[in-house]
Amino acid sequence: MFLGEFAHALDDKHRLTLPAKFRARLADGVVVTAGPGPFLLVYPLDEFKVLFDKVSALSLMDAEAAAIRRLLFSSAFDVVPDKQNRVVLPQMLREHAGLTDAAVVVGVGRFLEVWNPQTWEQVRQAVRQRTADPSVWARLGV
User: Fold this and answer.
1) pLDDT tens-digit readout, 79-126
2) Of 30, 32, 37, 12, which is closest to residue 100 (Cα–Cα)?
3) Which one of 28, 42, 112, 123 is separated from 98 by 20 to 30 angstroms, measured CA to CA?
4) β-strand partners of 79
5) What was the pLDDT predicted at 56?
6) Are strands 86-88 and 2-9 parallel, antiparallel or unpaired?
7) Rounded to an integer, what distance in angstroms lies between the CA atom of residue 64 and that of residue 37?
8) How far apart are the C-alpha atoms of 28 and 107, rounded to whole Å?
9) Is the pLDDT of residue 49 over 90?
10) Domains of the chain as residue ranges with CATH
11) Between vectors from CA 39 to CA 98 and to CA 23, what angle results, nearest 5°?
12) DSSP character at residue 85
């Protein structure tokens, strides 16, 4: 399970170091793809397979399903982290997330999100405000 928040720099070859605490879980490879907002999704291969199967099973005639398939699959790439636990982020994905020289890697359970640090700070503040209301938690059964 992926938990926590980690600030990392992108090196001059556009490589992102994945958090050391996740090294064993990600050693066999990851899939990095565009998220539905200005961030990236990083899945272990087995978790991406679950997502792939769910999205692939959606109706071919549903326009929203087609959009999700296009977003996830057209921007996805699979890679095995190098010995320093780094993955190269292609230009298209860096542009999607607004990444230049730094990133925040956020554990969100079964996968990771990668954010531009300034965008993440705005999102984090909005999340804190939104979840400050106990009724939000109660509505979700948490």
Assistant:
1) 999 999 999 999 999 999 999 999 999 999 999 999 999 999 999 999
2) 12
3) 28
4) 30
5) 94
6) unpaired
7) 15
8) 18
9) yes
10) 2-116 (3.40.1550.20)
11) 110
12) S
> Rg of the Cα trace of the chain?
16
Helical H segments across 8-84, by residue range: 23-26, 45-56, 63-74
| Mean pLDDT (the chain, rounded) | 95
Determine the Cα–Cα distance for residues 60 and 73; give it in Å rounded to an integer: 14
CB 96 within 8 A of CB 75: yes
**Contacts of 9 by beta carbon, 8 Å cutoff, 6+ apart:** 17, 101, 102, 103
Cβ contacts of 106 within 8 Å, gap of 6 or more: 4, 5, 6, 112, 113, 114, 115, 120
Which tens digit of pLDDT belongs to each residue from 126-135?
999 999 999 9
What integer is the mean pLDDT of 70-81? 95
Question: What local confidence, expressed as pLDDT, does residue 142 receive?
Answer: 87
The secondary structure of residue 19, as a DSSP letter, is P
